[in-house]
Design a protein that fits this description.
By secondary structure, the protein is of the alpha+beta class. It contains two helices and 13 strands; from the N terminus they run ββααβββββββββββ. The relative contact order is 0.15.
């Protein structure tokens, strides 16, 4: 039989494989894909961890008819602007005596602020929910600070909610609902 560059002249003999050989190749390919996927997932950033036990919280409310007003904290404080008919909230989170995070709803311009004030890989996040004028329910979130090496990380979300709308702000640690603040845009 004449060959050319290592290929048999009788091509049917060269392309025919036994079922066992095909099975081994398929199994080998599947194993390689699984190992590559595992290696890629292993290099991904680990998810944020929840506290155990969960953090404690305090909620401060302000009727923004009477603002400008402020609420102090160990970092940058909170300043609420006057917004007729609005009701603001600031949720402070503590763990083991340390101030670890805060979540604020500002009726003026309808903004949700979520702060991480301790670089410890926690899973603190928030979301806001409300019904619009037509009765449709809206939810934004999860809103999470970016998790940099800065002393304070924060994220601001402009909610663009109609004036006078009642809003629920839920604060979570991982998958656990820590607290809820009821506010008015």
């Amino acid at each position: 039989m004449k060959t050319r560059r290592g290929v048999a002249a009788d091509s049917s003999a060269a392309t025919t494989s036994s079922p066992g050989r095909v099975w081994r190749r398929t199994l080998g390919l599947a194993t390689g894909v699984a190992l590559a996927t595992g290696a890629l997932l292993g290099t991904a950033v680990a998810p944020a961890q929840a506290y155990a036990p969960y953090p404690t919280d305090t909620i401060n409310y302000r009727d923004t008819d009477n603002c400008p007003c402020s609420i102090s904290d160990p970092f940058d404080g909170t300043y609420f602007e006057k917004d007729a008919g609005g009701y603001a909230a600031k949720v402070n989170l503590y763990y083991g005596g340390s101030y670890i995070a805060k979540v604020e709803f500002h009726p003026y311009a309808e903004k949700l602020w979520v702060y991480d004030t301790k670089n410890d890989g926690d899973g603190i996040w928030a979301e806001a929910g409300w019904f619009d004028g037509s009765g449709a329910y809206h939810r934004t979130g999860p809103v999470r600070p970016p998790g940099t090496s800065n002393v304070i990380d924060y994220k601001i979300v402009d909610l663009d909610i109609a004036e006078g709308t009642h809003v629920t702000v839920d604060v979570y640690d991982g998958d656990f609902l820590l607290t809820t603040a009821e506010v008015i845009a």
